[in-house]
């Protein structure tokens, strides 16, 4: 049974890197009909916030990364960690260390002075035949893992290949603080064990933790999962992805008008490939996804490609769904509009925009009163045009309200008045939208409510701005 997990710390938003880790873990479980678990690593109470937790849950929900188990919260499992610590003390794989922070600092200074790498010297580590000092009164001990002294710890990383570390490079990790609270690496180990995780897919900033975690798992007699460490994501400029790159929180992509399927498709290709396939659904991704085709080198973010994918998915999207999403955006701008009315505009504009906000801008043209710029009106409203507009408007109440019939009416009108198409189309565009560039004017008119078109056209000859 494949069991994967996503284990964010709620100390910040769900960012692009985290979302990709979640996506790969999720897809791997889905690919193998396994289980995907969400675990919240919230033991760093000082840095964890409810807002960050909510942002992570919102991000997962928005992306549709559904989990089969969880969210589990580490802060609700403290008793379990404590009992595993007791178990390890009893088994001799962990021990109490009474070295005070001051002593440790002195030790480090001495080691540095001798040109050595600072590390705990094992003074409280039990060894056969070694006589330990008696515990100093009033000092609350930490608990340290008794790391194997010799040999190597190794694993075949499913992305990076074989990694080996000599045990003598690893000092005895603190697994519980003086107040009894467990430390980060220890919680991860107990959880991965208890939750039966088969594959740990996570960012390669955790590679250094892995040998310690494997050693602790081995000391517990637990199965060691397989590890896949994903390389980092670089920004457009080749630098480490950071706040400087603008959208770091996944929900910011929502704000900026990206569709979740566009971001998911984009993230899927960040460091993974299937031939030269660029555009694919998540169902397809879950059929294809494997760990063999993840690149060990860093992936570089490419905003142009993300925008291109977003435009693609906007074109594909169902108009009713887009209308609902645009309606929400309009509501946030204080514009109330009926979703069904927005649908016509969405259909007309979805091929021409690259995000939902631009679509909302287009829909807003219908719902916000505006004044066409005087200079545009002056430039495009010659007397012969006014006569043609008047004629056109007079026929509007009776025309069938669809692009083709309206197009016929436009052509008949210009023929009657001996005008070229732009002479009529341009003032229509300006009166209806205030803009010189719009989709084809017959379709534009058909997408607007009839009364609104009549009202806005009236501005041309009444000299009044449209109401
Ligand atoms: N909580 C860790 C983080 O947010 C992830 C730990 C793990 O995946 O093992 O970076």
List keywords for this structure.
Helicase, Ruva Protein, domain 3; binds glutamic acid; three-stranded antiparallel beta sheet; single chain; 4 domains; 467 residues; Rossmann fold; three-stranded parallel beta sheet; 12 strands; 47% helix; 19 helices; mainly alpha; Glutamyl-tRNA Synthetase, domain 3
Topology:
Elements: E1 3-6, H1 16-31, E2 35-40, H2 50-63, E3 69-73, H3 78-91, E4 94-97, H4 101-113, E5 142-145, E6 152-157, E7 161-166, E8 174-176, H5 184-194, E9 199-203, H6 210-220, E10 226-230, E11 233-234, H7 250-255, H8 260-268, H9 282-288, E12 299-300, H10 303-316, H11 319-332, H12 339-349, H13 356-367, H14 374-380, H15 383-395, H16 403-417, H17 421-433, H18 441-447, H19 450-462
Parallel strand pairs: 1-2, 2-3, 9-10, 11-12
Antiparallel strand pairs: 4-5, 5-8, 6-7
The protein binds glutamic acid (GLU).
Glutamic acid is lined by residues 7-9, 41, 188, 202, 206.
CATH topology of the largest domain: Rossmann fold
The small molecules bound here are:
glutamic acid
**Could you give the order of strands across the largest sheet?**
1-2-3
Instruction: Give the rounded overall mean pLDDT.
Output: 93
Uncertain spans: none
- Based on CA atoms alone, the radius of gyration comes out at 32 Å
Number of domains: 4
Give me the count of strands.
12
Whole-Å distance between the termini? 65 Å
Shape: elongated
Number of helices, counting only DSSP H or I runs of 4 residues or more: 19
CATH class of the largest domain: Alpha Beta
The chain-level structural class is mainly alpha
- CATH homolog superfamily of the largest domain: HUPs
Helical coverage, percent range = 40-55%
- State which percent range the strand residues make up: 5-15%
Give the biggest beta sheet: 3 strands, parallel
CATH architecture of the largest domain: 3-Layer(aba) Sandwich
């Amino acid at each position: 049974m494949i069991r994967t997990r996503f284990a964010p710390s709620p100390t910040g938003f769900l960012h692009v890197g985290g979302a990709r880790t979640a996506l790969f873990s999720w897809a791997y479980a889905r690919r193998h009909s396994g289980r995907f678990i969400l675990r919240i690593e919230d033991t760093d109470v000082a840095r964890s916030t409810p807002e960050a937790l909510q942002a992570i849950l919102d991000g997962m929900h928005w992306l549709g990364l559904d989990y089969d188990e969880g969210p589990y919260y580490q802060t609700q499992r403290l008793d379990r960690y404590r009992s595993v610590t007791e178990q390890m003390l009893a088994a001799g794989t962990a021990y109490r260390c009474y070295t005070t922070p001051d002593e440790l600092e002195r030790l480090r200074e001495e080691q540095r002075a001798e040109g050595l790498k600072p590390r705990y010297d094992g003074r409280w580590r039990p060894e056969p035949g070694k006589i330990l000092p008696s515990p100093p009164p009033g000092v609350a001990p930490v608990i340290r893992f008794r790391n194997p002294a010799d040999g190597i710890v190794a694993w075949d990383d499913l992305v990076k290949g074989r990694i080996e570390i000599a045990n003598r490079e690893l000092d005895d990790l603190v697994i519980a603080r003086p107040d009894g609270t467990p430390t980060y690496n220890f919680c991860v180990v107990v959880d991965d064990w208890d939750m039966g995780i088969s594959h740990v897919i996570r960012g390669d900033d955790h590679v250094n933790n892995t040998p310690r975690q494997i050693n602790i798992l081995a000391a517990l007699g637990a199965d060691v999962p397989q590890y896949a460490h994903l390389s980092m994501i670089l920004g457009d400029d080749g630098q480490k992805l950071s706040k400087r790159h603008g959208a770091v929180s996944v929900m910011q992509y929502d704000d900026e008008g990206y569709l979740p399927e566009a971001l998911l498709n984009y993230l899927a290709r960040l460091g993974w490939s299937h031939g030269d396939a660029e555009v694919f659904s998540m169902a397809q991704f879950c059929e294809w996804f494997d760990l063999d085709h993840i690149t060990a080198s860093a992936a570089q973010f490419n905003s142009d490609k993300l925008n291109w994918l977003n435009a693609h998915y906007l074109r594909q999207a169902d108009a009713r769904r887009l209308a609902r999403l645009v309606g929400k955006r309009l509501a946030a701008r204080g514009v109330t509009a009926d979703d069904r009315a927005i649908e016509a505009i969405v259909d007309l504009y979805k091929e021409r925009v690259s995000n939902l906000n631009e679509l909302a801008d287009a829909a807003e043209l219908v719902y916000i009163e505006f004044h066409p710029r005087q200079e545009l009106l002056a430039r495009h409203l010659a007397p012969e045009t006014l006569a043609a507009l008047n004629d056109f408007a007079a026929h509007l109440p009776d025309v069938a309200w669809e692009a083709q019939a309206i197009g016929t009416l436009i052509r008949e009108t210009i023929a009657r008045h001996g005008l070229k198409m732009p002479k009529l189309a341009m003032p229509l565009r300006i009166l209806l939208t205030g803009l010189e560039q719009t989709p084809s004017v017959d379709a534009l008119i058909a997408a607007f409510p009839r009364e609104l078109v009549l009202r806005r056209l009236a501005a041309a000859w009444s000299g009044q701005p449209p109401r």
